[in-house]
Write a structure and sequence with these properties.
Layout (H helix, E strand, L loop, with lengths): L7 H9 L6 H20 L2 H17 L10 H19 L23 H20 L2 H12 L4 H8 L3 H23 L2
Helix pairs in contact: 2-3, 2-4, 3-4, 4-7, 5-8, 6-8, 7-8
């Protein structure tokens, strides 16, 4: 991905000019992490898939608002986050486990003991429930930072806040998760 023609920003600039075929490489490149992000935000696989489709439709419809060389990933995730926020306004967020993979199974690290597998699965479900209990802004920051591995600066671009606000949301989100998890994970 060293050639300028392969960079996200160049591809999106081409999409902004109406070149529909340049959208496909962007979709393929960002499909899995974006769908995972949306799934963690809304807590339901089917709704996440619907929102994912709406996000890429919005990318196409809003293509003229993209200004090269603006970083593409924060722009894309901001659109996705806005779709999730709209969903939050319509409904109460469900408390569905978020640690499912595409097959619907909860992924667990290869552990030999069935009791270890059961404990890991239960722990993943409890952590997922903790994430769904967070207010939408804190949830977005926690998911983008922990699961997507984005920097605070990138998250600030996505959520449209100052970096210090993002760090505060992260702090409060983790503190709320800790309060939720401590009584549930005591051995």
């Amino acid at each position: 991905m060293n050639a300028p023609e392969e960079r996200d920003e160049w591809l999106m600039a081409q999409v902004a000019e109406g070149k529909r075929d340049k959208l496909e490489p962007l979709l393929r490149r960002h499909a899995t992490p974006l769908l995972t992000f949306i799934h963690r935000m809304v807590g339901d696989r089917h709704r996440a898939e619907e929102h994912f489709q709406e996000v890429f439709l919005a990318v196409w419809l809003k293509r003229s608002t993209y200004k090269f060389p603006r970083p593409f990933k924060p722009w894309l995730y901001a659109i996705a986050l806005n779709k999730c926020r709209a969903a939050f306004r319509k409904k109460v967020a469900p408390t569905v486990a978020l640690a499912e993979d595409e097959s619907g199974a909860t992924p667990v690290a290869p552990i030999h003991s069935p009791s270890d597998v059961a404990i890991a699965t239960e722990t993943a479900a409890i952590v997922s429930a903790a994430v769904t209990q967070l207010p939408p802004q804190q949830r977005a920051v926690v998911v983008l930072r922990i699961w997507e591995g984005l920097s605070y600066a990138e998250i600030a671009q996505i959520v449209g806040r100052e970096e210090v606000t993002v760090r505060t949301n992260m702090h409060h989100g983790l503190a709320a998760m800790r309060r939720y998890l401590e009584p549930r994970l005591r051995a």
